[in-house]
Amino acid sequence: MKKNRMMVCLFILLLSIAGLFGPYVSVNNTTIRANDLIFASLTSVYSYVLLLPYILFFVCGILLLFDKKAISYTAFILSIVACVIFFLTPFIISLMPEYKNDNISMGSFTLVIGICALALTLYYSGEIFSANQFTISDIVEIAMLVALAIILDLPIFKIRISLTGGSISLAMLPLIILCLRKGFVKGFISCGIIYGLLDCMIDGYGFITFPLDYLLGFGLLALVGLFRKWIFNKKKKVTFMGVLFLILSLLVAMVGRTLASTLSGIFIYEMTFWPSLVYQLTYIGPSFFLVLVVLLILYKPLLVINERFPQKS
DSSP 3-state assignment of 25? Predict the structure, then answer.
C-alpha cells in the first residue's frame, strides 16, 4: 500500500511539472503553455491564483504518504480548491486585462490535471466518509437545520446592504449549530453542497458564483466542527475554555468564508483585493457577530442537547 502511494505521489509530481509546459489554454485558437502565462507577470494577483492549484495538487499528492485521518481532512479541502480553480481557469484568465476580449478555452493538460484533482478529491472523500456515514437521524436533523437557515435568509429576516449584494442575517446560526453537532465532513456536505446549492438557486446570481460564494463560502463554516470536542467538553457545562474555543471557531469560520467571498469579488465581479475584502466584511462581520451573541446565549442548551443526543466525532 505504501509503495502504491509513493508511485501515485511521483505521478502527481510529474503531472504537475508537465502541466506547466503542456497545452494550458487556447486563446483565439492559439495554444499557450502555463509557464508562459503564469510566470509572465508575477506582479499580477491572477498569476498567483493560476499557480495555486498546481501547488495544492502537488501538496495533496505528498499528503498521500501520510496515513492519518487529520491529514485526509486537510487534503480533501486542498484538493477541492485545486479542482475548482483548474476548471475555472478559462474564466479567471478572461478577467486579466490583456485577455479580456479574447476567446479562451481550456487546454488538454489543464483538463487532465483537473480530472486528476477531482479523482484525488474523491479518494480523500472516500477515506473520510467511510468513518462518517449518515444515519436517518443525521438526515432529519440536517434537513431541519438547513430548512431553518433558508427561512432565516428570506428577505423579511435579513438586512440587505445593497440591492445586488450581501446581507446581514442569522442564516448562518443553524448552519454553525449543524457543524458543531455533526463535525467537519458532514458539516461541509450539508452547508457547502446542500445548503450552498439551494441558496445559489434561490439567490439567482448564476451557477458561476457557486464554487466560491456558496460551496467554499458556506462549506468552510464546517471548520467550527474541528473545535467541537473542546466546545462540547467532557464536563458538560459552560466553561471559560469552552466559550474561548467557541469564539475562536467562529473567527476561523469567518476568515474562511470571507476569503472565499473576497476571491469571488475579485474573479467574478472584477474588484481588487482590498475593496472586495472590505465589502465582504461589511455584511459577513456583523452577521458573525450576531451569530456569536446568539450562540453564547444558546451554549448551555446546546450542551444539554448534545449530552442527550450525542454525536460521533
Answer: strand
pLDDT in tens, 139-186: 889 999 999 999 999 889 888 887 667 789 999 999 999 999 998 888
**Euclidean distance between CA atoms 246 and 231, whole angstroms:** 6
Q: Which three cell numbers stand for residue 182?
A: 455533526
Q: Please report the sign of the dihedral spanned by the C-alpha atoms of residue 101, residue 274, residue 56, residue 186.
A: negative
Are the C-beta atoms of residues 245 and 230 closer than 8 Å to each other? yes
C-alpha distances out from residue 147 to 12, 18, 85, 281, Å? 41, 46, 30, 25
Which residue, among 124, 313, 139, 133, has the nearest Cα to 227 in the 3D structure? 313
Q: From residue 139, give the alpha-carbon distance in Å to each of 3, 178, 182, 306.
A: 38, 11, 11, 16
Contacts of 88 (CB under 8 A, 6+ apart): 211, 267
**Which residues, including other chains, have CB under 8 Å from residue 178's CB and lie 6 or more apart?**
141, 142, 145, 146, 187, 190, 191
pTM value > 0.85: no
Phi, psi angle pair for 24, to nearest 5°: -90, -60
> For residue 210, what is its C-alpha cell?
457557486
**SS3 state of residue 26:** strand
| Cell matching residue 226 | 474541528
Per-residue pLDDT tens over the stretch 125-135? 777 777 677 78
